[in-house]
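Budget justification aside, the reviewers requested a transparent look at the raw inputs and outputs of the sequence design task funded under Objective 1. We therefore reproduce one unedited record. The lines immediately below are the structure tokens for a 468-residue chain.
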């Protein structure tokens, strides 16, 4: 039987400061090595001070993933040497001797199957190594400590996944959930990373690391399963090891034999006392948690009669659901939802575009108002949206500037239709014989008016002209 487990690392990017010092958690905006201090550089005599908000965020994640959360938590030193780790140990958590990390024994429902969460722990991110140079001979390695000490939550699952597809669905659910909680931005480069471990019947466990994206993880898992099955068919032992995903060659390659926990010489971090998390704190975190994605979806379907697929798309994306929540009224909720899923998504289909987009909820309600008042067509709304996303100018101004007002004056449309009946004689004959071909003529009117003609009125006028 195939068994796949995951270890996910997610940065708490919404926090102000690092886990143990006042340096910024958002290290991305700094020049290399400009977001550091004696604490995150591990200088002698410096002492860590725990970021209370980080403990709360991590506890919220544990609660949202249905985990047990303990009365008190402890931190440990995980000792190893690597140039990106200035202290030569990482402050993390460990579940031993009755000490606990922020959460454990939770689960996530993936298409009716419970994927168990073994533990959730709070730890610090190491720095970053940057490799430069074109060839092996010119290659140099640079180190940037801006990231060192960034709050990181590690989420470890049981090996409950039976195939890579389940893994992908789980990761989508998890990243939507973390984003919805308002503690993380999984779309940011490097903000959410996942390692996988894979084993097949009778074989050893193999860990796959160094995976850049969820898409690559799925490919890496597929490759690894095929490799292990092929070894097993030829009666070759599957070695317990860590393998790296080679993105260029699309294969996994052996990198080292896997360390055991004892190799890390874990011991209690005595510079940080046990931290008590009162029941009342946990209760209030639970109470103040943002509405879950599933309950949002249910509300959209039940209250506004929005189609379940549409509700799902909006509810599971924090950006779209915030646009929707601030735009809708009782009357236009369904229209707003449809506008988002048919047109807005086309222009804003990545997290990067979400960040640069200038669109606001007011733009959406203004556009729907204009469509419903028949001052613009749906087609023109789409044209306007593209401009709104770029410039963020007021809807009315854009409609004016781009001359997108709907043409609903009968005589104006009639004149255009007369011209088209002249130009498209065969199509007129066709439409008289086979009424279903009338759309060709409607399309011609739309072409001429750049999509501004009132479609209902256009069809009406063409039909009456055909009957003359
Ligand atoms: Zn620092």
């Amino acid at each position: 039987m195939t068994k796949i487990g995951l270890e996910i690392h997610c940065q708490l990017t919404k926090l102000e400061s690092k886990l143990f010092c006042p340096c910024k958690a958002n290290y991305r905006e700094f020049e290399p090595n400009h977001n550091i201090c004696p604490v995150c550089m591990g200088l002698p005599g410096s002492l860590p001070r725990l970021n209370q908000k980080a403990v709360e965020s991590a506890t919220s994640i544990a609660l949202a993933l249905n985990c047990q959360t303990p009365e008190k938590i402890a931190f440990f030193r995980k000792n190893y040497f690597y140039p990106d780790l200035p202290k030569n140990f990482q402050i993390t958590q460990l579940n031993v001797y009755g000490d606990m990390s922020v959460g454990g024994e939770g689960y996530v429902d993936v298409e009716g199957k419970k994927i168990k969460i073994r533990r959730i722990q709070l730890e610090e991110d190491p720095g970053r190594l940057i490799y430069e140079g074109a060839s092996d001979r010119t290659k140099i390695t640079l180190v940037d400590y801006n990231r060192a000490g960034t709050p990181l939550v590690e989420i470890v699952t049981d090996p409950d996944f039976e195939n890579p597809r389940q893994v992908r669905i789980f990761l989508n659910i998890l990243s939507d959930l973390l984003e919805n909680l308002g503690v993380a931005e999984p779309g940011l480069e490097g903000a959410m990373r996942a390692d996988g471990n894979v084993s097949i019947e009778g074989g050893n466990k193999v860990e796959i690391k160094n995976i850049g994206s969820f898409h690559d993880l799925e490919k890496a898992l597929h490759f690894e399963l095929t490799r292990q099955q092929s070894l097993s068919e030829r009666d070759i032992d599957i070695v317990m090891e860590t393998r790296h995903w080679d993105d260029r060659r699309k294969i996994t390659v052996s990198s080292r034999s896997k360390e055991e926990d004892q190799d890390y010489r874990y011991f209690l971090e005595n510079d940080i006392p046990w931290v008590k998390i009162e029941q009342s704190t946990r209760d209030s975190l639970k109470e103040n948690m943002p509405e879950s994605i599933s309950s949002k979806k249910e509300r959209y379907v039940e209250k506004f009669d929005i189609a379940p697929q549409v509700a799902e798309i909006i509810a599971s994306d924090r950006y779209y659901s915030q646009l929707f929540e601030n735009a809708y009224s009782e009357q236009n909720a369904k229209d707003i939802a449809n506008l988002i899923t048919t047109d807005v998504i086309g222009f804003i289909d990545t997290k990067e575009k979400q960040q640069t987009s200038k669109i606001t909820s007011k733009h959406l309600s203004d556009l729907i108002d204009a469509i419903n008042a028949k001052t613009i067509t749906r087609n023109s709304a789409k044209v306007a949206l593209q401009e709104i996303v770029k410039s963020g100018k007021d809807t009315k101004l854009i409609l004016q500037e781009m001359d997108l007002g709907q043409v609903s004056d009968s005589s104006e449309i009639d004149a255009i239709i007369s011209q088209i009946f002249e130009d498209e004689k065969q199509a007129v004959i066709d439409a008289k014989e086979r009424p279903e071909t009338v759309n060709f003529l409607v399309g011609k009117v739309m072409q001429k008016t750049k999509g501004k003609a009132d479609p209902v009125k256009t069809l009406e006028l063409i039909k009456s002209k055909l009957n003359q």
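The chain has 16 helices and 15 strands. Residues 18, 21, 23, 36-37, 39-40, 149 surround zinc ion (CB under 6 Å). Computational costs for records of this kind are itemized in the attached budget.
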